[in-house]
């Protein structure tokens, strides 16, 4: 009756306008204005301390902004208490009640809100079977594995049947294999229930694989809002360029290039490691190190004049060993990302961003 | 293997000697003494069977001390635990002067009970004590709180609660700070009221602490009689006589060591039963992490 297998929630679009959160000695968030569309999977991505968790807590109502407004479906909720915002949340620590059984944990919210017993049971049965928890309902959280605890936390969010679900680094306590499984599971759940998901992570793999769109943050400010593909192909500034992609994009100061041409003085040229090829006609380079990865190897080169040496990583197939010297590097013009002296992308006109940039 | 046992025994020896000499031996000797008469002058101790126990059951002061102690325990245990919890919750929140408040609540614990009991005597003093001045301001007649049988026991009870609640608060404060904030936040998202959260989450998670404190409070109710020495000496008319104070009087004022040993056996038995009972009874309802 409440939870069906087709997307039911059309509500739940979140709009943030000029949000700021200042602490006594620091500013955690500054001038954040983003749309998190309804029914989509939005990821807040950034290094630790960038303000992404603070932003999530502001949306949840667990913290209050010092300036700015939060809207859900055009209704302002900035001053509402958490319980009236019609959203659920999964905490990094799962926040399971250690003295309650799995069933009691999942039903905690419903029983606090005095939902009828019969309905509680019906919803518990459905959610437990959906999350594969039916056999674990009598256990205590301490008797569950990390992955099972994670599922209970998810079930507690799902059973509330609210259109918005917030997740604060929910997979950071799991091992790598389980994390990969849960990524798929959470994404499938979000699509099946049509949830508006706001997912905080510092792991770009999670962000790239799960998100409909990603909000990249650094030092309390939004750097770029874009789909995973757009983010990778058209980073809006040098921070996003370096942050997205492993290994990170090479940023070469224009001064290091032999023929700068029309490139701006003081700017940077960004080239992904996989876009560079070994070509005798290219820029002469000195091999300084090789990291063997199996299918590929990462070769570190130095290029540029002696007073402007810059290190460049190149991803090359691992089948052939690299000779010690005599290398030269080349790349197609289309692989160049050009950034101005202020770090902002200049080739935006060539490949326009789908979403407005807030950088 | 043999050498290991030898080493182990040698390492245990110092502790064992101390434990036997000062704990186990006296305890066993006390039980034995309770079946013998008190040696006096040239009359040596003789075996009297259960005579001491029969005398005890017929002793009106012993019975009075037992019922006093029951009232005293029934009041001090819940009152000091409830007060400790209330203070801990109060000073855990973000309030101005939190450190100062915590310190004030803890102060009674670091002060010697003998010394503060003297101050409490002044509080209770008829005529110009603290409570009397309040009563006088309200137009009530003066009372001799520690000098009249009807109120003496309750006066010493108040001092006992006051002196141990601050100590208990520290344990509750530590337990409260072990409850992660995320539990409160998860409950807040569901619209849980503060009282519901306390009843369904905080209180169950504090149960191990509560058990620990109630065992301690029970032991204290029988063990801590310092303030009786200063305030009432068990009087008037045995109105504030507690078991341990009675044992002291019999043993060290009247030197009736055999009867004192008999009373001691009773007290140790009571404490053992209460302690075991609390563990087994409450164990089922307690969540241990």
TrEMBL record, chain B:
Name its cellular compartments: Cell membrane
Which residues belong to any copy of the ABC transmembrane type-1 domain? Answer: 66-276
Q: Which Pfam families match?
A: BPD_transp_1 (PF00528)
* Alphabetic keyword roster: Cell membrane, Membrane, Transmembrane, Transmembrane helix, Transport
Which regions span the lipid bilayer?
A: 70-90, 110-131, 151-174, 203-222, 258-281
Q: Which InterPro entries match?
A: ABC_transporter_permease, MetI-like, MetI-like_sf
Q: How does it sit in the membrane?
A: Multi-pass membrane protein
Q: What's this protein's family per the entry? A: Belongs to the binding-protein-dependent transport system permease family.
Q: What is this protein called?
A: ABC transporter permease
Species for this entry: Marivita lacus
Taxonomic classification:
Bacteria, Pseudomonadati, Pseudomonadota, Alphaproteobacteria, Rhodobacterales
């Amino acid at each position: 009756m409440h939870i069906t297998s087709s997307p039911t929630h059309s509500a739940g679009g979140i709009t943030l306008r000029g949000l700021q959160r200042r602490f006594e000695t620091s500013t955690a968030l500054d001038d954040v204005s983003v749309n998190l569309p309804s029914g989509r999977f939005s990821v807040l991505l950034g290094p630790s301390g960038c303000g992404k968790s603070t932003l999530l807590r502001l949306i949840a109502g667990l913290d209050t902004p010092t300036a700015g407004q939060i809207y859900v479906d055009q209704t302002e909720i900035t001053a509402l208490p958490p319980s009236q915002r019609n959203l659920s949340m999964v905490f990094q620590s799962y926040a399971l009640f250690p003295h309650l059984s799995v069933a009691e944990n999942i039903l905690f919210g419903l029983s606090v809100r005095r939902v009828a017993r019969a309905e509680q049971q019906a919803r518990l049965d459905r959610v437990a079977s959906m999350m594969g928890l039916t056999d674990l309902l009598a256990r205590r959280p301490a008797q569950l594995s990390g992955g099972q605890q994670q599922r209970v936390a998810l079930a507690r969010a799902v059973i509330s049947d609210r259109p918005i679900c917030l997740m604060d680094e929910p997979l950071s306590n799991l091992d790598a294999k389980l994390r990969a499984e849960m990524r798929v599971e959470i994404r499938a759940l979000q699509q099946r229930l049509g949830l508006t998901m706001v997912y905080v992570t510092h792991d770009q793999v999670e962000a790239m694989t799960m998100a409909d769109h990603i909000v990249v943050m650094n030092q309390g400010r939004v750097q770029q809002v874009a789909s995973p593909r757009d983010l990778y192909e058209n980073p809006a500034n040098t921070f996003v360029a370096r942050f997205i992609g492993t290994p990170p994009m090479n940023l070469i100061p224009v001064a290091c290039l032999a023929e700068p041409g029309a490139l701006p003085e003081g700017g940077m040229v960004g080239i992904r490691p996989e876009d560079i090829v070994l070509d005798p006609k290219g820029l002469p380079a000195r091999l300084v190190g090789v990291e063997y990865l199996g299918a590929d190897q990462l070769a570190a080169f130095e290029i540029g004049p002696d007073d402007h040496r810059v290190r460049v990583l190149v991803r090359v197939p691992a089948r052939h060993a690299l000779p010690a010297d005599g290398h030269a590097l080349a790349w197609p013009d289309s692989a160049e990302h050009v950034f101005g002296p202020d770090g902002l992308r200049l080739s935006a006109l060539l490949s326009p961003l789908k979403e407005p940039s807030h950088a | 293997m043999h050498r290991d046992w030898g080493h182990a025994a040698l390492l245990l020896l110092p502790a064992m000697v101390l434990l036997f000499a000062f704990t186990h031996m006296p305890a066993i000797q006390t039980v034995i003494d309770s079946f013998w008469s008190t040696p006096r002058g040239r009359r040596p101790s003789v075996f009297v069977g259960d005579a001491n126990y029969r005398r005890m059951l017929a002793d009106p002061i012993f019975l009075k001390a037992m019922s006093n102690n029951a009232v005293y325990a029934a009041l001090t245990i819940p009152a000091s635990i409830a007060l400790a919890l209330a203070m801990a919750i109060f000073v855990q929140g973000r309030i101005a002067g939190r450190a100062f408040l915590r310190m004030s609540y803890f102060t009674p614990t670091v002060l010697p009970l003998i010394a503060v009991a003297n101050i409490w005597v002044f509080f209770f003093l008829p005529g110009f004590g603290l409570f009397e001045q309040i009563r006088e301001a309200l137009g009530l007649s003066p009372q001799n709180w520690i000098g009249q049988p009807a109120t003496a026991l309750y006066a010493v009870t108040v001092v006992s609660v006051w002196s141990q609640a601050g100590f208990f608060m520290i344990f509750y404060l530590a337990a409260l700070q072990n409850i992660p904030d995320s539990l409160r936040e998860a409950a807040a998202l569901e619209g849980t009221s503060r009282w519901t959260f306390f009843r369904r989450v905080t209180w169950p998670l504090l149960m191990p602490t509560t058990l620990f404190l109630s065992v301690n409070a029970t032991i204290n109710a029988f063990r801590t009689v310092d303030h009786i020495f200063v305030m009432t000496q068990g009087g008037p008319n045995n109105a504030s006589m507690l078991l341990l104070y009675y044992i002291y009087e019999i043993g060290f004022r009247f030197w009736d060591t055999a009867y004192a040993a008999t009373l001691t056996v009773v007290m140790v038995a009571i404490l053992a039963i209460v302690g075991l009972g609390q563990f087994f009874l409450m164990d089922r309802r307690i969540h241990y992490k």
